[in-house]
Amino acid sequence: MRTVLAAASLLLSVTPAFAHEVGFGNGFADELWSTDPWLLIPLYAAAILFLVGTWRLWRRAGSGRGIRYWQAACFWTGWSVIAIALVSPLHWFAERMLTAHMVEHEFLMVAAAPLLVLSRPLTAFLWALPIGARRWLGTLATAPPIAALWIALTNASVATLIHVATIFAWHTPSLFEAATSNPLLHKLQHATFLVTALLFWWAILNLPKRQLGVGAAHLFATMMAMSLLGALLTLTPRLWYPSYSAPLLGFTPLEDQQLAGLVMWIPGCAVYAIAALVFLAVWIAASGRYELQPAKIKVLPTG
């Protein structure tokens, strides 16, 4: 247990320590690295829960069992991506440059979210809790209203619609501008992007092999919607978001908007396209195996 507490202490101290070591002077470093408790507390709480839960489970079942090594690697990589997006200097630039803001959103939706879903962190989170809390949460999760809501939200079609609708809604000029000027709305924007992306990837990545073709269709549909939004941002001749009108790093505001659109259009959509192609390949291979299986002939007894 002392090892777990030491690791947790290290997690809690790493960001402030790094901020003070940045060579821009302490005041500027503190501004570059976010110290917002609304970001740090959930981030570190998730890290500590996963760390403690993994340690307890591996102590009971054996190292690498229950939570595999590659799942632990997925969690910590996804966790690090969220930290980079919301705590590192990228967040500072995202408040001043639309392209950095778009990179931040893509980190959350197409990098952190699928990695966290693949890690299946709920197992570790539950093992981090006292056994009484685990039983209570298990009873709550299996309650008919909660179970029905979860099944509805993680339906592939519903999750895709919610995710795409959320992205388009927040990128309307009026709502996007409101989020940039209101810290509470800005946090809500990040939270809804991440939560709906988690729902989307959970629904897609948990499809059975026979339905991976359907998953590929949803991935392609999401890619096309994101491509449309990215193309509109890239090709429009007018500025959508006046709050990003101050030039930065030599870019004019319109060039910044066009580059942000390209970030969404090309690397962002490429993740959905690659995932869809992988799904199609696995689906076709699985379909071939099902077709090649010999039919079982039942021989009836005679006489």
Provide a descriptive summary of the structure in words.
- The protein is mainly alpha-helical and 303 residues long.
- The chain has one domain.
- The protein has 14 helices and no strands.
- It has helices at residues 2-21, 26-32, 37-61, 69-86, 89-94, 98-119, 121-127, 131-141, 144-153, 156-170, 173-181, 183-205, 212-235, 253-292.
- α3 (37-61) runs antiparallel to α4, α3 crosses α7 and α6 packs across α12 (183-205).
- The protein is globular, with a radius of gyration of 23 Å.
- The model is unreliable at 1-26 (pLDDT under 50).
| CA radius of gyration | 23 Å
Count of alpha and pi helical runs:
14
H/E series: HHHHHHHHHHHHHH
Level of helix content?
Answer: over 70%
How much strand content do the residues show?
Answer: under 5%
Low-confidence stretches: 1-26
Characterize the biggest β-sheet: none
Q: Give the N-to-C terminal Cα separation.
A: 70 Å
- Secondary-structure content class: mainly alpha
